[in-house]
């Protein structure tokens, strides 16, 4: 009983390369996304300082003061 060997066609290798590159890219993207999610979930919430409102001159003040 003998087995017949088959050679893989160039079309197979082309599809194989496309699928391999796609799988590697998808793996990298998903790994980065899950890593960021895990880091966000394990990090304690950041303390936020009260927001400071920027200085807004009143109507009479044109902002022409001199600072020494």
Comma- or semicolon-separated keywords:
single chain, 68 residues, mainly alpha, 1 helix
Question: From the helix content, strand content and strand pairing, which structural class follows?
Answer: mainly alpha
Q: What is the global morphology? A: elongated
- Number of helices, where a helix is a run of at least 4 consecutive DSSP H or I residues: 1
Strand residues, percent: under 5%
List how many beta strands DSSP finds: 0
Contiguous uncertain segments of 5+ residues? none
The whole-number mean of residue pLDDT values reads: 81
Q: Major beta sheet, specifics?
A: none
Helix content: 40-55%
Gyration radius, in Å: 31 Å
Quote the distance from N terminus to C terminus.
100 Å
The helix-strand sequence is: H
What does this structure look like?
The protein is 49% helix and 0% strand. It is built from 1 helix and no strands.
Write the layout of secondary structure elements.
Blueprint: H1 10-42
Explain briefly what this protein structure is.
The chain is mostly helical. Helices cover 49% and strands 0% of the residues.
